[in-house]
Input
Amino acid sequence: MASARKLRPIHERGPERQPKKVLFVQGGGQGTHDSWDDKLVASLETALGAGYTVSYPRMPKEEEPDPATWKKTIDRELRRLGDGAIVVGHSIGAAILVDHLADETWPVRPAGLFLVATPFMGRDGGGEGWPSGELRPTREVGASLSDGAPIYFYQGLDDDTVPPSHADLLAHAFPRATIHRLKGRNHQLSDDLTEIARDIQRLE
Output
């Protein structure tokens, strides 16, 4: 009869695996943090499971997003989470996020970028995408992020806020990115981020 397997004392076992860190950057609009994107975070946390922790900071003046102010919050969170964090952005928050990462002035490197309903920022008056305003045109951002962490875009084909045509523009600006066009899904991806969770888990 085989002998019973003996467990090593806790102090002799290897270190426990630490949860992977995820940063979720919300979209803009009055009440978005507490009444809209919180549902996306809840879906993501459920789909990812116990092996991940999701940080969901409240962005300042969400009803009128100011890129410079939001970047300070994003930068602070990235520094806190450190290298290897997984970063998810929604809507204008995703556009501000990639613009910040293209600055190349931040000290940490994410493991992957997962961007939901991301508006394509065109040159002001150029007639392509949304006017860039205080953000640089997305084509310039794409060129700056040509190397580094994998990038995924998710676009609902029933999105009436960011037109699905933006996904085609993003595909040209980020030629190495993975683009998911999701049928029957709205600007909030119908509060379902299971596809994002699945792609995050595939990073392992």
Summary: The chain has one domain: 24-201.
